[in-house]
Amino acid sequence: MNLKDKNKYKSDFKTELDHFATKLEEYVSTNNGDWTIKGFIDVYKNIYTISSDTKIISKILEIHIFPQILAFAESINYKIILAEKQNWYPDLTFVHQENDEVKFAVDLKTTFRRNGKTTGFTLGSHGGYFKERDKDKNIQFPYNQYIGHYCLGVIYTRTDITDELSDTEIFQVEDLKDEFEVTNQKVGNRKVTNVNKLSSITSVIKDFDFFAAEKWKIASDKQGSGNTANIGSVFDIEDLKNENGVFSQLGENWFDEYWINHGIATMLKDGKLHKITSLKDFLTFKGRTDLHEKIVSKTFNKK
């Protein structure tokens, strides 16, 4: 496939993904912005609220919007292939139904607001498949077979800032009961609270912002999680939504080269040998100090 055709597929896909993202808030929210998911229900009509733990929220959101994602893919003439294993990249592979050379990687990424920014998220590994782009280890298809790599991002506000599962509650709702159904007082040792309406239960998250972004355009030059080889995102909400990451004025080639060499390339600094873990140092190492001004520096803010 020639570059012109690739760019046309890429432009069309991003336009459709942007449009799709704008419709998701209405799908997952009540009129006042609360998440429509209140918890899990059992056969006895007990409703168990959920923790605001980010991993739990992310998985439930993924399940919640997955029917919409399937419908979206079909509407733009793509099929979806799910990652075969939990830790594989990406979450979703979009493959054009008439040309299977056209593939796009899409990860669902969630983050919550904190102090006017977000806590950020990881954008996939910068080792393994990212470096060996013709290999298929821990990735659905080799990295270089994808025309583009995207995030379907979700920013939300947490109603409860704790992650403790012990803080979750159990409810029964009058509107869901049969006329002569008896209210349970306890489930095991846990108290059951009775409420009149389902809407009375506080949603664990609210105020959603959905956005679509190309991965490299929202990346920072810092790792996203501890000692693992993951690329971190920027934290500023508008930067995420507007694809205004650290590399956004430099281009994808610099993003690729920096992260392939992150923590491996070394340079002399103040007479000592240092591993290169900042974009400014990397550009200096490459002899391109003229590009320092293109680093979007305001995105260096920490959590």
From TrEMBL:
The keyword DNA damage does not apply. One of its GO terms (molecular function) is endonuclease activity. Coiled coil: none annotated. Keywords: Endonuclease, Hydrolase, Nuclease. Gene3D superfamilies: DNA mismatch repair MutH/Restriction endonuclease, type II. InterPro entries: DNA_rep_MutH/T2_RE_sf, Restrct_endonuc-II-like, Restrct_endonuc_II_EcoRV. CDD domains: EcoRV-like. This is Type II restriction endonuclease.
